[in-house]
Design brief:
3 strands; 3-stranded antiparallel β-sheet; globular; 152 residues
């Protein structure tokens, strides 16, 4: 879990990414209808949790990392593609919005376990060291269980 003062900075950082994405969308005269319609598309990656928490976390993290939309924005700028820049702006806006709300990248131990701490109602706030110890134990336990299942 991230300590409260740092968490506030990370949420503010998310807000700035959201604001930058919305500003780029507006500057490129993107349709607000399409912005609202497609804003939650990256969250479709959550459906991969149906295949298990490891696959779900990998898919969610791929769709919620800044790296791919930033590369998309760079490519859109190089080839001067308005639609590519709009897609990158929308995607970055979504990720910034999630970070602003406190949703982080997921650990393979479960959907509620993020790099910003445990999310959801009734989640117990842990100190950073305790949180990391819990995550490591969950990872170790799930990895050894997978080994037993794949090598009977």
């Amino acid at each position: 879990m991230v300590a409260p003062p740092v968490r506030a900075w990370l949420r503010f950082e998310g807000f700035t990414i959201l604001a930058a994405g919305v500003t780029v969308w507006a500057a490129l005269s993107g349709s607000w209808f399409w912005f609202l319609l497609l804003f939650l598309v990256p969250d479709l990656s959550m459906a991969m949790y149906l295949a298990g928490p490891r696959i779900g976390a990998a898919a969610y993290n791929a769709a919620h990392s800044y790296a791919v939309p930033v590369l998309l924005a760079l490519a859109g700028g190089v080839v001067d593609s308005r639609s590519t820049l709009l897609a990158a702006a929308l995607w970055l806006s979504h990720i910034g919005f999630d970070r602003m709300l406190g949703y982080g990248l997921k650990y393979p131990s479960g959907f509620r376990d993020t790099h910003l701490g445990t999310i959801g109602r009734g989640s117990r706030r842990l100190h950073t060291d305790e949180f990391m110890a819990v995550q490591f134990e969950r990872y170790r336990t799930s990895a050894s269980q997978e080994d037993r299942e794949s090598h009977p």
